[in-house]
Amino acid sequence: MQEKFPLADKILKMKPLKNRYFILRHGESKANVAEIIVSYREHGAHDDFTLTEQGERQIRSSVQEAKEKGILDSGVIMYSSPFSRCKRTAEIAKEVLGIEGNIHFDDRLRERWFGDFERTHNSNYQKVWDEDIKDATHKNFNTESPQEVQERTVSLIDDLENKYKGKKILLVSHGDALQILQTAFLNKSAKEHRQLPHLHTGEIKELV
Question: Which CATH number is 6-207's, of 3.40.50.1240, 2.30.110.10, 3.40.50.2300, 3.40.50.620?
Answer without folding.
Answer: 3.40.50.1240
